[in-house]
Amino acid sequence: MSQKKVDQYKARKNGHSKEQKKEKFYDWLERIVGVVVCVALVAWIGYSVYDKIEQKQDSVVTQTTMDTSALDSYVAGLSAETTE
Asked: What is the pLDDT, as a whole number, of residue 41?
């Protein structure tokens, strides 16, 4: 190998550890950001579900009454016709 290639190799090797540290830092940073995003997403979904449950409990229940005597007499008339 020529001296020029040896010098380039040594320069690349010296810079390699700095590059590795930078890559490790960015990998660590990506993991932390990913965890924070996942925790925020889970918290948001949990709060949304909790809020919907609380809204259902606070809602007003209305009772509706309906007179079904006409329907009952009609059905009774149909069953009387089928027995004849």
From this structure: 97
